[in-house]
Amino acid sequence: MENKKALIIGAGIAGLCMGIYLRKKGYETTILEMHTISGGLATAWKKKGYTFENCIHWLVGSKVGEQMNLMWKEVFDINQLKFYEDEIFQVIEKNDERLIIYRNADKLEAELLAKAPEDATAIKEFTGLVRLFSTFKFPDSDAFFSRMLYYVKIVKYLPAMNKYSKLTMADYAQRFKNPLLKHFFDSGIGELSLLAIVFSLAWMHNCDAGYPIGGSLKMIGLIEETYKKLGGEIKFRAKVKQIQVENNRAVGVVLENGEQIKADVVISAADGYATIYKMLEGKFVDNKINKIYETYKPFPSYVQVSFGVNDSFKDEPGFINILLDHEIEIDPETRMNNLSFRIFNYDPTFAPPGKTAIVCFIPTYNYEYWITLRENDNSLYADQKNKIAQEVIAIFEKRFPFAHDKIEVLDVATPATVFRYTGNWKASMEGWLLTPATGFGQLPATLPNLKNFYMVGQWISPGGGLPSGLLTARNVSKII
Ligand SMILES: Cc1cc2nc3c(=O)[nH]c(=O)nc-3n(C[C@H](O)[C@H](O)[C@H](O)COP(=O)(O)OP(=O)(O)OC[C@H]3O[C@@H](n4cnc5c(N)ncnc54)[C@H](O)[C@@H]3O)c2cc1C
Hints:
Bound molecules: flavin-adenine dinucleotide
CATH superfamily of the largest domain: FAD/NAD(P)-binding domain
Shape: globular
Helix content: 25-40%
Distance between the termini: 12 Å
Number of helices: 16
Strand content: 15-25%
CATH architecture of the largest domain: 3-Layer(bba) Sandwich
Number of domains: 3
Structural class: alpha/beta
Strand order of the largest sheet: 8-7-16-17-18-15-19
């Protein structure tokens, strides 16, 4: 096996996990990454002593001994991460009104019943779902008997799965009368499957979705270290332009600089659209694949305003969503009536002592506007970024007046940044949205009529997320 050569396109979480599994099976592996560091979307950047996190809010698998924790151990020593778990997931505020979304379902239920007794029936239904799914396990073996046993074990979840998998967050929001509670369900991405938030809260209830101190850079660094210790190679600044095919077999790649690299197997852990329709020129598709790319909706892109504040934000919430009195315009097609701030007062590695890194994430589907603006008019692009930053800061300072005049660093990333650094289609933050139409299953890892080629990562796993990188790589390594 030592002679078999695998090329992996992309050093995001999926590409790194793929590299580790194949090295363990004896393949000679090279990961080709267009950027200068690993991580893809799972990244952060440093500016004047502050670190601005791009990704991890929570990592499923933080609880020792749970299913995902055991799988992470296959690709790195997760015990080296220190997890932080606030009892509060999110605080939602409108002027003097405040709703706390607790991670524990019992505390959450008590809080919601106290603040919104008019919604008692829907609240109990929702927290009941969170408790139910907190014990749910995903299949982790394809062996016949394991599968059979698995189906027996999940019977009790099937009626709820069947009933609620047809609902979106926006559908479910209609059940609530309390404005803040309604807002919790429909302020984000309305088309997202209700079960996406149920599962997220279920993992939190089970204390299996903590935040790793040091964030994405720490976690990705440990996974990259494992890969390199196993003898895997990564080539940075190596953008793949084309996947070479001979007699319906992938035989290597051509880089943008013209270099050709041969391999026995090629795996794309990069953007799905670019892989299928550009690197492979759309030659290996069928109706099913075309229909996915025509009809499935990706997660939105985003503008991220990050700033460093000379204050500890002691006793302030780590994640706050503020409902605004007036809408603000982010770009010609995006208006926001609320803003979310992550206050990293719990991660001492992100700022010098007594100071705090803050990140405001603003979703937008208007990626074309940002990419075109940056290409055509750099000065207008800079003005637009600054305008949004000032509006965001004004809202933040109104809520936290003590922060006034203490902001020492400012950074704005846009969909143009996301696209430039990760190549994701439509500058999406997480691949395909998990919706009632996509369901929970993975999409095919292979393409019709193409041998020795596989895909892994968020574009074959609706809902995306870091675990999707590991799970898809794990499956493909078994197929290979
Ligand atoms: C704001 C935000 C918050 C998130 N929060 C969480 C969270 O709390 N928990 C969680 O689990 N997930 C979260 N996610 C989602 C998670 O980050 C992604 O789903 C996951 O990182 C995707 O990994 P991937 O390897 O599939 O793809 P990517 O990370 O996109 O990696 C693809 C890699 O391929 C490279 N590449 C692309 N094209 C080429 C080419 N032609 N040649 C060479 N290299 C190429 C890219 O540079 C990149 O490194 C969040 C994402 C965002 C943006």
